[in-house]
Amino acid sequence: MFETKLLGIDENSVNTAAELIKAGEVVGIPTETVYGLGANAFDEEAVRKIFAAKGRPADNPLIVHVSDFDEISPLVTEIPALAKKCAEKFWPGPLTMIMPKSDKIPMVTSGGLDTVGIRMPSNKIARAIIKASGCPIAAPSANLSGSPSPTTAQHVFADMNGRIPAIVDGGACGVGVESTVISFEGDGIRLLRPGFVSVEDLKEITENVLVDKGVLEMLGEGAKVMSPGMKYKHYAPKADVTIIDGSSHEFNAFIKANADAEDVVMHFTDNDVSGLSQRRICLGATDEEQAQRLFDALRELDEMGAKTVYARCPRKTGVGLAVYNRLLRAAAFRVIKL
Ligand code: TXA
Ligand code: MG
Predict the structure, then answer these.
(1) Residue 229: CB within 6 Å of ligand 1?
(2) Domain contains 29
(3) Is 232 part of a structural domain of the chain?
(4) Which of the listed residues 181, 233, 295 should we mutate to test ligand 1's pocket, taking the one with most ligand atoms within 8 A of CB?
(5) 228 lines ligand 1 (CB under 6 A)
(6) 190 φ/ψ angles, rounded to the nearest 5 degrees
(7) Are 197 and 250 in a shared domain?
């Protein structure tokens, strides 16, 4: 058991976090996407502590975070040409690229795979901590396995109090959903997890972008899983969430006809809820606002004691695809198409 410290953002907390990481401990760190649980990616014992703190299955690989492009060559056996192009365009930023791993990355870190996901965060505190630690940092989202990813230090504290020595409080995450995860196949890109770097953005690198089946479909028993994280239950609030796919007007009419007084409505605009009396959470009108608000909203549903939730369906393009992908999992893939 630790007495988990919340560290404010200053040079001292960057150093404190780096000292803990050098000593083989796990620290909660802010990034532009969501908070991460960071430890030395080379240190098997330290990485085991991450899995223990999260209650994460050992076959779900961790993303390795670097502060500079030059740090990746020792971690991989090959840097695909497309990866270089993507790094130039999207790094530092919310993009994780899967590459063949070198022996320097322990199997514990890669969840037993011979590949490793690498990302260079744009968050300056995150990069300062990586630099000061002097090692690449393995970091999954800093939630308990199955819970919504944390977008504030308080979310991390709620899940990790007593499990890790410290959390660096960098304020609310700007992006709010985890990084886009891609792998490379021949001269193409496979999208494994949508994020702020959208399919449309990736198509500026190559037209050959394939959206993996697991992004929008529930993977059947025994299906070949390209990204192990996609097979686990995710982001699930205690309530039963149903996604209602229709226009603002159709959504409003559906709620009027079907929702009970104690149900909760998750919506985007005032129009969605005009004339409704149900409790509500507003995610905002744009894809970006919805991404930024979603995980906090899922935690809020639990605090409200919500039992049945009707959520308006996000757009399936741009950053909206990332919001839809997360909400689908929170809703256990229940969608009503109007
Ligand atoms: O934005 C993010 O990516 C955050 C912050 C902290 O950087 N991290 C994050 O990590 O979301 P995590 O562990 O919660 O999600 C990583 C996802 C999982 O679905 C995992 O299965 C997949 O990336 N992944 C990691 N390494 C992989 C690999 N070598 N091959 C396939 N999928 C991989
Ligand atoms: Mg996660």
Answers:
(1) yes
(2) yes
(3) no
(4) 181
(5) yes
(6) -110, 125
(7) no
In a domain, 231, yes or no: no
Domain limits at 320? Answer: 240-337
Span of 94-98, 103-107, 219-223, 321-325 with lowest mean pLDDT: 219-223
pLDDT on residue 218: 84
Q: Do 137 and 251 have their domain in common?
A: no
Whether 194 is in the pocket of ligand 1, judged by its Cβ within 6 Å, is no
Q: How do residues 131-179 score in pLDDT, each as one tens digit? A: 999 999 999 999 999 899 999 999 999 999 999 999 999 999 999 999 9
Residues 24 and 160 in one domain: yes
34 touches ligand 1 (CB under 6 Å): yes
Same domain, yes or no: 134 and 87: yes
Report if residue 228 sits inside a domain.
no
Please give the order of strands across the beta sheet that includes 180-185.
5-7, 166-168, 27-29, 36-40, 137-138, 63-65, 115-119, 95-100, 180-185, 188-193, 209-211
Ligand 1 closest atom vs CA 226 = 31
191 and 173 in contact (C-beta within 8 Å)? no
pLDDT-based confidence at residue 10 (cuts at 50, 70, 90): confident
* Banded pLDDT at 221 (limits 50, 70, 90): low
Q: Is the CB–ligand 1 distance for residue 110 below 6 Å?
A: yes
Give the closest ligand to the alpha carbon of residue 176.
1
The two tokens of residue 49 are: 């502590």
Last residue of a domain, one of 215, 230, 259: 215
Distance from residue 33's CA to the centre of ligand 1 (Å): 12
Question: How many angstroms separate the CA atoms of 297 and 54, rounded?
Answer: 21
- Tell me the per-residue pLDDT of 100-127, one tens digit each, with 9 for 90 and over: 999 999 999 999 999 999 999 999 999 9
User: Residue 198: left if φ>0, alpha if ψ -120 to 50, beta else—which one?
Assistant: beta
Model pTM above 0.70 = yes
Are residue 30 and residue 178 in the same domain, yes or no? yes
pLDDT recorded at residue 233: 63
The finding on whether 147 has its CB within 6 A of some atom of ligand 1 is no
